[in-house]
Known about the structure:
Blueprint: E1 2-11, H1 18-33, E2 37-42, E3 49-55, H2 58-66, H3 69-72, E4 76-83, H4 98-102, H5 112-119, H6 124-131
Antiparallel strand pairs: 1-3, 1-4, 2-3
Family: Belongs to the YciI family.
InterPro entries: Dimeric_a/b-barrel (IPR011008), YCII (IPR005545)
Pfam families: YCII (PF03795)
Amino acid sequence: MRKYVAILKDKKKGELTKELLHKHVGHLQRLTKDRRLFLCGPFKDNDSAMQILICKTIDEAIRLVETDPFIKEGYYATYEVNELMEANEDNNWLMDIPVTEENGTVGNEGTLQQTSEMLNTISSNYILNHLLGK
């Protein structure tokens, strides 16, 4: 299974009803029960939100987003779905994959190997907590 990040955008502020909110939460609860939802929540900008979905294909992820009442009923006007290339210690922070190598060095500060060594000193928990705003 792969992870897909869905960004829900262009919120229609002032149009949220209790009924719509309950439908949306029910959708999230079903995704959680089916082990399809990894993480979700709104951004502080109050205009967009994120869902990280666990799916086999991008088409499945798009289908799950399109069945969200927030999308179906137009509370969020647009969305974007992209596959996440998860970086972590187990895969050397993606330093050795062709896409990263094709991008060349990481600026004038050093090579990809030097950057990899630096990233390996950072705790995975710190990164996750930082992303979650803890």
